[in-house]
Amino acid sequence: MISDVRTLSLIGAVLILLGTSWAIVKLLRRRPESGIDPAILETFRLRVRAWWILFAALAAAFLLGHVVTVALFGLISFWALREFITLTPTRPGDHRTLFWVFFLITPLQFFLVGWGYSLYGLYSIVVPVYAFLFIPARIAMAGDYKRFLERTAKIQAGLLICVYCLSYAPALLTLPITPGAQARQAESRRLGRETPATLAIEAAKTPGSEHRSLRADREDFLFADSSGNIRLLFFFVLIVQLSDALQYAWSQLPSKHVIVPTINATRTWEGLLGGTLSVMLVGAVLWWATPFHGTSWWMSPVMSAVISLMGFAGSITMSAIKRDRGVRDFGTLVEGHGGVLDRLDSICFAAPVFFHCTRWWLILNGIILPAG
Amino acid sequence: MDTNISRNFLALLARFLSGASVRWVDSQPDTCQRVYFANHTSHLDAIVIWSSLPQAVRTITRPVAAKDYWTKGPVRRYLANQLFNAILIDREEIKVHQSPVDLMIREIGQTYSLIVFPEGGRSDGREINEFKSGLYYLCKKRPDLELIPVHLDNMNRILPRGEVLPVPMLSCITFGPPMWLEAGEAKVDFLARAREAVRSLKELD
Hints:
The complex is a heterodimer. In chain A, helix 3 packs antiparallel against helix 4. Chain A has one domain (5-29, 36-364). Chain A is an all-alpha fold. The longest helix of chain A has 37 residues, at 214-250. Chain A has helices at residues 5-30, 38-64, 66-87, 95-115, 120-123, 126-141, 148-171, 181-191, 196-205, 214-250, 269-285, 299-325, 340-364, and strands spanning 258-260, 264-268. Chain A starts with a helix and ends in an 8-residue tail after the last helix. Chain A has a two-stranded antiparallel sheet with strand order 1-2. By secondary structure, chain B is α/β, with parallel strands linked by helices. Chain B has a single domain, classed as Glycerol-3-phosphate (1)-acyltransferase. Chain B has a seven-stranded mixed sheet, with helices on both faces. The longest helix of chain B is centred in the N-terminal third of the chain and has 17 residues, at 2-18.
């Protein structure tokens, strides 16, 4: 399954990066005289631990298929929403609405994403249209009008950020990124399962593939698409996490121009620019792992810049929410639970934008049909 | 054996649903005979405290619960009798010759610990109501029992009064340092001290 060189190289690169960071943490913790602020070291250690967990979650995609990855993201999303709502003051009148939000809308969104790209038209609007309208109506039905708009907006924001936006990360696994993938996905959905006969028909329909053997085509059908998608998700998560870390590293430079001192004292212009330029470099080096290889290799660094900027937007937004609620982390509210949302803020913001930019690029290049 | 598996499963489920993080402040889990007393804001309170105890302690800890609520329907009856091994108190027929305190003392013998809610009924979660005197009479008869104050935070948002379906928000359970009934301590003073012990755990965050 993971026999192709590109995917193996990407995983190898990530493993080397993770192993190196882990070794650095181990080494520095053993030497307290190194002069590095222990608080910074602790932040770094927690971050490296979160990376390992993320890596394990993504590795599961290889071994167990995309449905498991989608379900895993669903659980993470559920937990993030819990942290968000726990921190948000709600009133007893919101109870029934919250029940539906947690147990109907959240699983439904991930079910639709897991079903595949053929339901894109549905999962892209279920939360922003149907849930958006359902929430105020249901709260109104409960009869409590005190601070009505405020309560409604808070639940809507929580659902959009923690569930809707985050669900676009696993949705990358179902995006048809190779020519003909969309038709084949639809075909296999229609037939329920793929048979050698249908594969042969498909092979005949796809131009330029007449010379390929049935076996090769079957392998292409089963694995090549999915490994391209897994690389896309890997690339995305890697760039988000790297841009977080690199922005932090660059903001340690001596001359500091803090962007918004009232919200976050550690985010500086040096960090944002330096971090973005560095991940653009990483993105350019990793062009071979993305669907943008070939003539449009430049898309890879451009996307990296987009991810970096959106990641910054996400963490500054979540910082503002935390400041308003008077907490340092979403995790500190309940001791012992590492704040899931503290680790995911940049992914939440970057995922939908990365998904849509990639989709536009695929449409412009005729790989997927705009009606999709 | 079968009951044990169901118990552990239920404890896990309760832990997941309540998202409860457990803190022991100046206090340790122990299998000695204890009375856990807590503020009461939701029907889930007893289950959540019970499930947050380590397994060895959990098996010898029995919640005290209202008979009228926990005998309604086969599910609740099964939970109360088979799984939590609850001591059910008849709230309608409290008489001198079958007082709840005597029943509790009879039921715990020399092994079991208790989970009680001295407020009597559920509060709205903002203030802790005055404690009923049962806790005092229990300690008067069994002064050797260790009293552990427990504070439940956010439970009223998970399952408020009058709701059936829980919303899985995160909650926090704090176990405080043990206390005892002092020799010759007056009822009012003792109950006020016990209530203050629970309230002080709320302000620890």
